[in-house]
Amino acid sequence: MDIRRARSAAELAAAEGLFDGPARPEWCERFLAASGHLMLIAYVDGVPAGMVSGVEMTHPDKGTEMCLYELSVAEAYRRRGIGRALTLALAEEAEARGCHGMWVGVDTDNEAALATYASAGAEDEGLFSMRGWPLRDDA
Ligand SMILES: CC(C)(COP(=O)(O)OP(=O)(O)OC[C@H]1O[C@@H](n2cnc3c(N)ncnc32)[C@H](O)[C@@H]1OP(=O)(O)O)[C@@H](O)C(=O)NCCC(=O)NCCS
């Protein structure tokens, strides 16, 4: 397995089977151009088998932290350590960028994700409730 940072829209498009929906060219370009946004893709024999995305967040009193935005491993490649390896690779990248920590929000019934993050050293920081403001219907 080889983990590499996505640098082009073509790499993102080739990995879209790992996303919840199709990759749109304009959003790929915006993602790649956005400071503090990154995606690491795990390749097995050249095939995109998993991905993790991260977004750096900075606040005046908190410094910079990494939010693990999405983690996904294709079903055929699960339970081989790829999700754990991607999570650790993002944490390593966050540390290299000077982030003071990394966090992720997880559904409390997502046993695979909870096990993966625990396996990658995450601490349980408690439950929180999420609220949203849908602003457009094309997302
Ligand atoms: C969560 C996900 C990324 C895990 O990927 P994976 O490559 O199968 O995970 P790994 O093989 O690296 O497993 C890491 C650890 O979690 C455990 N684990 C993985 N899947 C599990 C499951 N379904 N039930 C229980 N434990 C599980 C493994 O046993 C391993 O534990 P260990 O290190 O103590 O041996 C994958 O199941 C997935 O893509 N799920 C759908 C998307 C998703 O829910 N993403 C997370 C959003 S927050």
TrEMBL record:
The N-acetyltransferase domain, residue ranges: 1-139
Keywords assigned: Acyltransferase, Transferase
InterPro entries: Acyl_CoA_acyltransferase, Bact_Acetyltransf, GNAT_dom
Keyword Endoplasmic reticulum recorded: no
Endoplasmic reticulum keyword on record: no
Pfam families attached to this UniProt entry: Acetyltransf_1
Record protein name field: GNAT family N-acetyltransferase
Species for this entry: Streptomyces katrae
